[in-house]
Design a protein that fits this description.
InterPro entries: BilAc:Na_symport/Acr3, Bilac:Na_transpt, Na+/solute_symporter_sf. It is a multi-pass membrane protein. The protein is mostly helical. It is 78% helix and 1% strand. It folds into 2 domains: 80 residues, no CATH class; 334 residues, Na+/H+ antiporter like fold (Up-down Bundle), CATH 1.20.1530. Strands 1-2 form a two-stranded antiparallel ribbon. Strand 1 and strand 2 form a beta hairpin. Helix 3 runs parallel beside helix 14. The chain is globular. The two termini are 37 Å apart.
Length: 425
């Protein structure tokens, strides 16, 4: 694999020559494919460079943006199938969240009891600083309403697992980081639609209950399935029997739906009862997924280690499709949106750190809170934008914010790693 990566670096050098030649001659038929080839070969080849391999995921995001900007039509449809299809977006975002969930554990929630003050400070900072800074940026800059709503949306989402990785690299309080991420994810069905309703309600239509249920479907259900897998690793026989019985009930429910049962329910039940039943179906599906994944992981012990890569692939998909769909908007406001993302992200780090210090947290904990506040769940924002049918506008901020926060987070984490808090060696 290392030899292949080095060969890709050689191809990248040739692609760079083609790109420069095409730009000088004004030959779009040369420089456009050369630019895509350069980005793709760099994304693969950078893994051969020890000093830069941690940025490989970010370079893949960059490659997706380059390809989608230059050839947008290629990434909107596959044959006659629309790649922005609502159900495809739902399935991919659930896959992303499930992959993230496999890196979480039920033990993560014990930190709420062990360090309640730090968790409370982190979660309050998270759901106040980023939504309010996002709102302020939409007032400072002139964005179209739906793009402005996307900035507030990315600020209103829960923390991403990238914050845990950065806290680990920075030698910050990792236990606090993991627990705060888990809790912010758990409360996001309430806090995200609340902040969107308060701050973005005049920009786009925000249906509080509908958005809450979407977050339950795209975040809580898949992460719940992953946590069920974690529970089954050490479950007592009685607990395992209960879970298997629930999975059996879920399978029966799926068979009922496949046989046309939903149409029957729609005819005999009041319309108000159908959404709760649909949500129940998602939870039963989560039980089935958790049980099946647990069985697969017993056969393939490295499956948990592979899941983050699957999540990253899903985020690359979101970035590609969102960029392709919103290309015209990006050409108009892309530079300004990038500046807003940098300011948004930087304000999260700065205010998260200093407000937590003001609340009495030590330096290691304050650094963890800074990452919790500054690093958002881009997959969740993309999924919600897709559910709203506004991936090309509301989803643009997430497409810009996600790669930048990985770059800035890595820089800050490595800076702090070289300067450990006084209490650490």
């Amino acid at each position: 694999m290392l030899v292949f990566r080095k060969c890709c670096l050689g191809l990248a050098a040739l692609a760079l020559v083609g790109l420069l030649a095409g730009l000088v001659s004004g030959d779009a038929a040369l420089w456009r494919p050369s630019a895509v080839l350069l980005a793709l070969t760099l994304a693969i080849g950078i893994g051969a460079l020890e000093a830069l391999k941690s940025y490989q995921y970010t370079v893949w995001i960059f490659a997706a943006v380059v390809a989608a900007m230059l050839y947008p039509a290629r990434f909107l449809h596959l044959g006659g199938f629309d790649l922005r299809n609502k159900w495809l977006v739902l399935l991919v975002v659930q896959m992303v969240m499930f992959g993230m969930g496999t890196q979480m554990s039920l033990r993560d929630f014990r930190g709420v009891v062990q360090s309640p003050r730090g968790v409370i400070v982190a979660v309050i900072c998270h759901f106040t600083i980023m939504p309010l800074v996002g709102f302020g940026l939409t007032r400072l800059f002139t964005f179209p309403p739906e793009i402005a709503a996307g900035i507030i949306l990315i600020g209103s989402c829960s923390a991403g697992l990238a914050s845990n990785v950065m806290a680990f690299i920075a030698r910050a309080n990792l236990a606090l980081s993991v627990t705060a991420t888990a809790v912010s994810t758990l409360v996001s069905p309430l806090m995200t639609p609340l902040m969107m309703k308060l701050l973005a309600g005049t920009l786009v239509e925000v249906r509080f209950a509908d958005m809450m249920m979407e977050i339950v479907k795209i975040v809580i259900v898949p992460i719940g399935a992953a946590l069920l897998h974690d529970y089954l690793k050490n479950a007592a026989p009685r607990g395992r029997r209960i879970v298997l019985a629930a999975a059996g009930a879920g399978a029966a429910w799926m068979v009922f739906l496949a046989a046309g049962g939903w149409g029957l329910l729609a005819r005999i039940l009041p319309a108000a009862m159908l959404p709760p039943l649909a949500t129940l179906g998602f939870f039963l599906g989560a039980v089935i997924a958790g049980v099946l994944y647990n069985a697969a992981a017993a056969i393939l012990p490295r499956l948990d280690a592979w899941m983050p890569r699957l999540s990253m692939a899903g985020i690359v998909y979101f970035t590609t499709v969102t960029t392709a769909a919103g290309r015209d908007n990006l050409l108009q406001v892309g530079a300004l949106l990038f500046l807003a993302s940098v300011l948004h992200n930087s304000a999260g780090y700065f205010l998260g750190y200093w407000l937590s210090r003001g609340a009495g947290l030590d330096q290691g904990s304050a650094r963890a809170v800074a990452f919790e506040v500054g690093l958002q769940n881009g997959g969740m924002a993309s999924g919600l934008a897709g559910a709203m049918g506004k991936l090309s506008t509301v989803g643009l901020a997430a497409a810009i914010f996600s790669p930048w926060m990985n770059i800035s987070g890595s820089i800050l984490a490595n800076f702090w790693r070289r300067r450990p808090p006084p209490s650490q060696p």
